[in-house]
Amino acid sequence: MSDLSSEETEEAEADLGEYDGERNSEGERHGRGKARLPNGDTYDGEYEHGFRSGQGIYRFRNGACYTGEYLQNKKHGQGIFFYPDGSKYEGDWVNDQRHGYGQYTYANGDTYTGEWFNHNRHGQGTYIYKDTGSKYVGGWVNGNQEGEAELIHLNHRFKGKFLNGNPIGRGKYIFDIGCEQHGEYIQSEQDKGEGEEEEEPSLLVAPKWKASEITKLTLWTPHGENPPSPREASLVGAAAAAAAAAVEERAAAVTEEEKMPSIAVTDEPAEGRDDEPSVHEVSSEVFSPARDAGEEDEGSRGEEENKDQEDQGTASLEDKEDESKEAV
């Protein structure tokens, strides 16, 4: 739907902008051509029966630019969209929507590479946080982190399930020193006064990590290969125990000023980390996806603003450039 008033619509129909290019026998724009719309947008590319179809470059007056395939005036196929804030999407389009597989580079440098559905991250994908180098690899539903996934950091990673961007239920932390900490993320309950009606839990309340046990790394045996001998397995377990003990001793000797922040997932830079934290610190820390997701949310807001600008630019265009009704 167009935001134009009836008077403006009539004026737009009377002036479809300038066009220089090929036409068919019916006088429709057909073949290669260039158009300048009344709103200042320009298009240079292929037409079929009055519609932008095929390869083309559309430049918006606000600085945005789309280079790629069209079908009946809609972005459809492979294309790259450069947004005014410096972000970029490169990948599949269906009916003017990011849909299929593609990569979005956000203004803050974060990237998402994976599946899209109706303009949203949906399916399997990888989100990389530029400032920390951390990355989320797993499921997405309507733009949110959801499903089985791994959150990978510099010297450890978390494997479990996510819901609405937060970890939920059972999972485990896997440390490069050679051990794992198993546990469960529990949604903390909000205090309610007497007589107050029960409300849905706030998404701002971060789930709490409750550790249950520390084990050696789970041995992974590729299909078709023999598992390690009992002696090899015992050596792995001994090495993991020794490594954990060494880290415990070193962490105990560090002063309060020198101690690392939490080993739980944070959005703090990896620079200056001279000491590896104790494995046991995880059990007393709150995993706050909001900190890593903060940058993602900032990128997502830019993504949605870009979508609004894109839709606003193309909405008036579809009324102003109704080439199918254009006179010879």
Describe the structure.
29% of the residues are buried. This protein has a 16-stranded antiparallel beta sheet. The protein is elongated, with a radius of gyration of 27 Å. Helix content is 20%, strand content 39%. It has helices spanning 6-14, 230-253, 289-320, and strands spanning 18-23, 29-36, 42-48, 51-59, 65-71, 74-82, 88-94, 97-105, 111-117, 120-128, 135-141, 144-152, 156-163, 166-175, 179-186, 208-216. With 328 residues, the protein is an alpha+beta fold. Mean pLDDT is 73; it is low at 1-14, 191-203, 220-225, 250-290 and 315-328.
- Major β-sheet annotation: 16 strands, antiparallel
Number of helices in the DSSP assignment: 3
Shape designation: elongated
Strand content: 35-45%
Gyration radius over CA: 27 Å
N-to-C series of helices and strands: HEEEEEEEEEEEEEEEEHH
Strand arrangement, major sheet:
1-2-3-4-5-6-7-8-9-10-11-12-13-14-15-16
Mean pLDDT metric: 73
- Percent in helix: 10-25%
Tell me the number of strands. Answer: 16
Which structural class matches the secondary elements? alpha+beta
Low-confidence stretches: 1-14, 191-203, 220-225, 250-290, 315-328
Termini separation (Å)? 26 Å
